[in-house]
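Review form for a predicted model. The reviewer records the input and the model, then writes brief findings.
Reviewer: anonymous (R2)
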Amino acid sequence: MTLEIAAVTKRFGETTAVDQLTLAIPEGNMFGLLGANGAGKTTTFRMILGLLAPTEGTIRWQGEPIDYSKSHLIGYLPEERGLYPKLKVKEQLVYLGQLRGMKKAEALSEIDRWLERFHIRDYADRRVGELSKGNQQKLQFIAAVLHRPKLIILDEPFSGLDPVNVELLKEAVLDLKTNGATIVFSSHRMEHVEELCEHVCILHRGRAVVAGRLRELKRSFGKKNLVIHGEGPLEELERFPGVLQCKRTAEGVRLQIASEETAQAIFAHAAGKVAVRLFALEEPSLNDIFIEKVGAAYE
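Model under review:
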C-alpha cells in the first residue's frame, strides 16, 4: 500500500477533529474522502502532508513518514486559494515549480502545456487577481501538479468551475492517475467522486462511518433505486410493499426499494395502469449512502 493511515487521532484542545482513523490507499489509486463541513477531511489532508502532527497514530507513505525531503514528490491543492493576486500567471507558476525542484526551462515547458490544455494560454502575462474564480482554480490545480508529483492531494478541486471546466479537470485528473499518480481528493459533489474513485471513505465527526471499495459498498447497501417515467397513478406506489421511499420527479417517480423482487412486483402491478416510458432498476448512488450514514445527524 502506498499511503497508510493507522489509528490516527487529532485533537485541538478538547475538540477531536479526527478520531481513530485507519485507511490504506493503494498505489496508483483514486481515493475519495467525503464528509460534511467539519467532518475532519482537511485536517486529515494536513496530517498526511505533515503540516499537522497527529495526536495519536501514524501516517506513512511508501513505508516512511512524509517530511520536507519528499515535498517534490507531493502535490497539494488546498480548498482555500493560495495564489498571489498581484503576480503574473506565468511568473508565479515558474516560481512555484522551482520551489518543487524544477529547472526554469522545464517549468516553462510544463506551464505552456497546461495553459494550452486548460484554454488559458492568453492569460499567461495577466495578473492572477484579474482572472475569474474558475480560471484561478485551474491555475491552482496547475501549481499542484506542475512538478509531476507521485502523491496528489486535492481538496475540493472542482470548486468554482462551470460544467465545461469540470470536465476538463476530470480528464486531467484521470490522466494523472493513468500515469501512475496516487490521488486523494474530497468533493461535495458525490457524482464526481462516484465517477472517478474506486475507493471511498465517509467521515462523520472525525470517524470513518463507511470505508472500502465503492462497488462493494453499493452491493452491501441492501437497497436499490427504481426510476419510473410515465403517466398514471404513480403516487400510489409510495404505499406498495417493499417501497422504502418515494420521490416525485418531473417525469414520474424515483423509488428506493428493498430488493429486485419488489421491482418485479411493481412492474406487474403497474402493467395496464401506467403508460411507462422508462422503468429502470439502479444501484444505490453514493449520495444515497452518504445521506443514510450522515444525513440523520441533521434531522
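Findings: The CA atoms of residues 227 and 254 lie 5 Å apart.
Further findings: The mean pLDDT is 91.
Recommendation: see findings above.
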